[in-house]
Amino acid sequence: MASTPTSRFAAPGHPPATTTQFRGVRFLHLGTSWVQGAMRLDKPDNIELEYVQMMMMWMLFNDQPKRIAQLGLGSAALTKFCYQRFPHARVDVAELNPNVIDICHAEFGLPSNDERLNVREMDAMDFVLDPANHNSIDVLQVDLYDEDARGPVLDSQEFYQACHDCLTDDGIMTTNVFGEFSNYDKNLQNMELVFDAVVWLPEVHDANIIVIAFKRSPQVDFNVLYERAGDIKRRMNLPAKNWVNGFKSWMQDCQE
């Protein structure tokens, strides 16, 4: 099942951004075999990977965000989706590796910056510590991995506190926790020290676990959530019912 190597962006000072293609899907790598993102060539505006789709589960709680921020660009799937599907929202991205930004423009259909889209080459920690970003972001999506993909690059209590500080009163963070087993507990504990409510969904796609963290704990009515999930499926073609099932399963496990 060898894939076909295609492009390579390798400006010095950062891991090279490379792509492979297999069965109609283009994959992003950072100079290693680890998949950092994907795009189906005949559906370039869809979100291909299941765990990346799950990063959108904040839509169950907020369908009209004004500002969405992304830490870690990946293959730009989330950035493109949010930019296209939420035309009244501002979308900001912090990505440290210029090779990733360049390859996303060239090979993954990332639009140029405009009055709503701002993709910047910068450290995610600098972004969340910037006072200009505090109390201004409705949705923060965090997917920070280097070429080794052993665990999130930023995972300290200080980092998650800064993420919390960037959110509006009802702001939501989704994050991907992947890698060595010890990373899960460390990340979850540091999030729980900061956020009012932290929920993690069942593992999907090669040990990726998606966490949703709330600055202020939401009122949860599963009838309402399933209704919203149906609407998300119809409008966005995302498997939102699975997200609600995972959310419900987590709550039941916590009560046992």
TrEMBL record:
<dbReference type="Pfam" id="PF01564">
    <property type="entry name" value="Spermine_synth"/>
</dbReference>
<dbReference type="InterPro" id="IPR029063">
    <property type="entry name" value="SAM-dependent_MTases_sf"/>
</dbReference>
<protein>
    <submittedName>
        <fullName>Fused MFS/spermidine synthase</fullName>
    </submittedName>
</protein>
<keyword id="KW-0620">Polyamine biosynthesis</keyword>
